[in-house]
Amino acid sequence: MRPQAQASEPRAGMLVCVCDPQFDPPANDNGPKAIPTLGLALGFAFAVLAQTVASAALPLAGAMLAPPMASPIPWLTTSPLATWPFAAMLLGAALASFPASFLRDAFGRRTGFALGASLGLAGGALLVAALLQRQFAWACLGALWLGMAQGFSFFYRHEAAAASGRPAAATAGVLAGGVLAALAGPTLAGFAESLAAPYFLVGAAGLAALAHALSLGVAVTLAPDPPPVFRPKSVAPLAAVVGPTLLGALAWFGMSAVMSGAPLALMGCGIGEAAVFGFIALHVAAMYAPAVPLALVGDRVSPVLLAMAGLALVAVAVPLQLSGSAEGITAALLAVGAGWSVATVGCTAWLYRAGRPGRLALAVHDGSLFSCAILGALAGGFLF
Questions:
Q1: Fewer Cβ in 10 A, N or C end of the chain?
Q2: Which residue blocks in the chain are alpha helix, DSSP H?
Q3: Phi, psi of 236 (to 5 degrees)
Q4: Alpha-carbon gap, residue 189 to 72, rounded angstroms
Q5: Per the domain annotation, does 16 fall within a domain?
Q6: Is the dihedral of CA 344, 350, 351, 352 positive or negative?
Q7: Whole-angstrom distance, CA of residue 328 vs CA of residue 298
Q8: Largest CA distance in the chain
Q9: Is 236 helix (H, G, I), strand (E, B) or coil?
């Protein structure tokens, strides 16, 4: 008599009946081929290019399109609504965390990442229309969609960590793919702006849409998921995400607060609007540059120590930002970017130390990070 096979857990998106697992695998885009880290890094790199451009353009677009509004703080000269597009991008990333986690399991990584890139393509196109028509609400909606694409793209690091026995190094390897994209961002943004002249920021918004289109091209060529293993799932308890989520949330709050206030603060120091892209790209490069050495030695250092070291760097950036000088703001952008990178690598590796987290745990973790980033973006408009 043939031994009875273990049944798999039914999931949303399983389009066939759960029968004998030897003959009826789930009907998503699963397949026998494992996915290479290079493919994950490439898809993430295009998403980082869009993030670099959007992070610099959205605060400026907000200041340009925000309706006049009396400020509750006397020394605040810009509209409090100016940071709303940037905050909307982070809100979209937070909202995407839950569907990104569950849709990936239901329909496969290829479908999930392609959906996220499609949202980014649509968001960039809507931002172009908002700038041409000077519609603040459209800009916020386009930023929301760009953020949702960002939320999906950050699951590239979970894919790498889950498939590797060295989660810190695998996470850092994916994040390292963003270094070149961040460095190329200012040059590409300047070229796009020259093509779209005299319409300010339209070229940058179009470049963000193009970057997500390229990310979509990578997503649809990714290797399908490996066949599911039909055994009782060994999932880390939900309580295991509390520590890394708390430390990561503080790091993301500080990073977002400094980053959202920096473009307008730099312009207040006499830095030209076009040059702001270079400063933000330098910050984004600092966000991913530490991932290069961490990809080699990350698993030799305690994840908790990495997370705490990254948070300390973020804390150092706050007084530097408050200095009010261009040099201090630049140092703050570098420190907060590097601190965010080290803290994110440490917290992600910390998540996998007790075993592979469940779908809900990953959604709660990323959703909490992006939610605190939203609060940081809103706080940055008042503090800096």
A1: N
A2: 37-65, 84-107, 109-133, 136-153, 155-163, 167-176, 178-196, 202-219, 242-268, 273-288, 291-297, 303-322, 326-351, 359-383
A3: -65, 145
A4: 35
A5: no
A6: positive
A7: 29
A8: 82
A9: strand
Of 161, 164, 149, the residue nearest 112 (C-alpha): 149
Q: Which residue stretches of the chain have pLDDT < 50?
A: 1-33, 70, 72-77, 226-233
Tokens 């997503």 belong to residue: 219
Does residue 221 lie in a domain region? yes
pLDDT at 362: 80
Q: How many other β-carbons are positioned within 10 Å of the β-carbon of residue 194?
A: 10
Q: Tell me, what CATH number does 160's domain have?
A: 1.20.1250.20
Q: Give a yes or no: residue 4 inside a domain.
A: no
Instruction: Indicate the number of domains in the chain.
Output: 1
Q: Helix, strand or coil for residue 235?
A: coil
Structure tokens belonging to residue 106: 């239901």
CA pair distance 187, 191, nearest whole angstrom: 6
Domain residue limits at 98: 37-228+237-383
Chain centroid offset of residue 233 CA? 28
Integer Rg of the chain from CA: 21
Return the closest-CA partner of residue 179 out of 300, 294, 63: 294
pLDDT at 363: 79
71-77 own/partner pairs: CB under 8 Å, 24+ apart: 73/382, 76/382
Q: How many CB atoms lie within 10 A of CB 324?
A: 11
Predicted confidence at residue 116, as pLDDT, reads 86
Alpha-carbon distance of 239 to 372, in angstroms, equals 19
Tens of pLDDT along 300-349?
A: 788 899 999 999 999 999 888 888 788 888 899 999 999 998 998 888 88
pLDDT given at position 314: 94
The reported pLDDT for the residue numbered 1 is 44
What is the token pair recorded at 230?
Answer: 């039909």
Evaluate whether residue 15 is within a structural domain.
no
Q: Which of 153, 174, 154 is CA-nearest to residue 164?
A: 174
Record the pTM.
Answer: 0.68
Tell me the C-alpha distance between 147 and 151, whole Å. 6
Amino acid at 235: V
